[in-house]
Amino acid sequence: MIFLVDCNNFYASCERIFRPDLQNIPIVVLSNNDGCIISRSSEAKDIGIKMGEPVFKIKNLIKNNNIHVFSSNFELYGEISKRIMLELKIFSSKIEVYSIDEAFMQIDNNSNLSALSQEIIYHIKKITGIPVSVGVSSTKTLSKIAVNFAKNKLNNTFILEEKLDIYEIVKSLDVKKIWGIGSNYSKYLYQNKIFTAYDFMNTNKAWIMKKMNINVLRTREELKGISCFPIVTSNPPKKTITVSRSFKNDIHKYLDLEKRISDYAFICSRKLRKEKLTAYSISIFIATNQYKYRPESNYYGFTSDNFLVSTNNYIDIVKLSNKLLRKIFKNKFSYKKGGVILSNLTSENSYQASYLKLPSSSKQDSLMNSIDYINNTFGSEKIKLASQNLQDVTSLSRKKLSPKYINSWNDIPNITI
Amino acid sequence: MSMIETINYFDTGISAGFPSPAGDFISSKLNIHDYIVTNPSATFCVKVSGDSMVQAHIFSGDILVIDRSIKPLTGHIILCVLDGEYLIKKLKIKNNQIYLVAANDKYKPILINKKNPFDISGVVIASIRKFI
Predict the structure, then answer these.
(1) What sign results for the dihedral spanned by CA atoms A158, A161, A163, A167?
(2) DSSP of A21-33, one letter per residue?
(3) Residue A254 CB-density burial (10 A; 0-12 exposed, 13-18 middle, 19+ buried)
(4) pLDDT in tens, A271-325
(5) Buried b / exposed e along A349-382 (16+ C-beta atoms within 10 A)
(6) DSSP conformation class of B116
(7) Contact B41 A83 (CB under 8 A)
(8) How many CB atoms lie within 10 A of CB A163?
(9) Please, is A11 exposed, middle or buried when counting C-beta atoms within 10 Å of its C-beta (0-12, 13-18, 19+)?
(10) What is each CA distance from A54 to A32, A36, A69, A72, A121, in whole angstroms?
């Protein structure tokens, strides 16, 4: 059977772990730059706060209901997520981490599905402090449906097994709510008078293949209990690494832009090195604010190049990014956005990468490792390259950021005893 | 908290000549993290101030290591939440009653009753104090 474990209001729940004073108090978490609501505690949902709502629109609601507002603390959420996924491996080695707060697990030969689900919920809550829901069924698609029902159950568990139960549910389930049916396909299905999951299950196979694609057909089979999407235990290697940001204020000068692009190239390299990958190609882009200016004042520059050999050397990557920037930079524009994309990624240890190393590389390698070591130990921005300007790298505005309780010695909880 | 492994970057520098006879044994090192933490995903740290636990050798400024996975028993020092506030106390279970006992005669034991919301967050497994 497939168990889908889904954290309840994950970000809001994370904010609560080290704040016992907020146990039953409404909490919301904001998106990057404190723009919109991206997570709500159940109390905040009850007050009527909607997902994705811009925070400025509900200022009064927040004030009048004493709602606690947090910026997104991704360092904290990421670490809690890692711990949850690690603990889930106790229950099954066939586990697919589907997102920061969801995992599919395959568990066979267990007769008491409900008791096992309860055990998972209890264990994760005890070890990490995060409440989770468990949906169980024979396929991933059905377990997705099950977990949505689990969220509204007192014991946060829903086993979708009996043919009759499945029939009852698909009869009234909006086709749009099915996992894998995007908004485009659901619009198309509506147009063709296919409104419920039941209608969809009885749609002609050839028609689906002709008008949509094989994955839509697989989804149909999964609803019937035929497993088509297996558990993918290891993440497929990343195909590209991108770092791009909107600038708080428009940038006019080349040097200011170079600082940003250098930063993004540096962060890209750090991500690359963390995954033990090397990149062969790099692209950069810069763009003006197309909503603000007239067409003649708008510009979008994009260019790519290849390294001599695949690399994850900070200096190589920043250097080439600056060279590319010089190629596409044009005066007299106000730049609003820029980014760096690394592609053609291969593993650091792959034959091709190591075979083609340049003669100077062993010295360079130890320099790069030292940069990593120092930045990992003393904070991520202690060592940088001269062209960088790290003041604005974390230009995200996070005014209501909670401490990194389990990521940083400076942020561990203080307790008066 | 596991920085010690990463130091390896530095200690096998490239040098010509006779290889170190210790080269094969380089992996065995004392790792403080491994000594203290047995359940990494259940462990976190807090910093304390106050004098209620001095007889248990917990002083202001100490860092306590908390393990959420250990079953709390009488005699354990625990981190708990009473009425929405964190407390560090010694746990005592007697005649089906839970007492929170300070390690300082100045403070009286607290008897837990069902009215006040109470929860045990974890067991204190170590205290860290640096002298310099």
Answers:
(1) positive
(2) GGTTS-EEEE-GG
(3) middle
(4) 999 888 889 899 999 998 877 777 778 888 999 988 888 888 899 999 999 999 9
(5) eeeebeeeeeeeeeebebebeebbbebeeeeeee
(6) S
(7) yes
(8) 8
(9) buried
(10) 12, 4, 13, 14, 32
Interface confidence: ipTM more than 0.85: no
Contact residues on chain B for A79, CB-CB shorter than 8 A: none
Residue with tokens 């690359």: A272
Share of chain A above pLDDT 90, in %: 62
* Token duo for residue A275: 């995954």
pLDDT of A359 above 90: no
Give A372's contacts in chain B (Cβ within 8 Å): 9
The identity of residue B80, as a single letter, is C
B78: nearest CA partner in chain A: A417
A169-221 per-position pLDDT tens digit? 999 999 999 998 877 889 999 999 999 999 999 999 999 999 888 999 999 99
Q: Is A360 on the interface with B (CB under 8 A)?
A: no
Across the interface, whether the CB atoms of A417 and B10 are under 8 A apart is answered no
Q: Does B104 touch chain A (CB under 8 A)?
A: no
Q: State the count of interchain CB pairs (< 8 A) between A and B.
A: 83
Residue located via tokens 């704040």: A19
Over residues A86-131, the pLDDT tens digits come to 999 999 999 999 889 999 999 998 889 999 999 999 999 999 999 9
CB contact under 8 A, B49 and A362: no
Q: Is B87 on the interface with A (CB under 8 A)?
A: yes
| Chain A nearest CA to B122, separation (Å) | 9
Q: How far apart are CA A96 and CA A1, in angstroms?
A: 14
Whole-angstrom distance, CA of residue A211 vs CA of residue A196: 18
Q: Is the pLDDT assigned to residue B75 strictly greater than 60?
A: yes
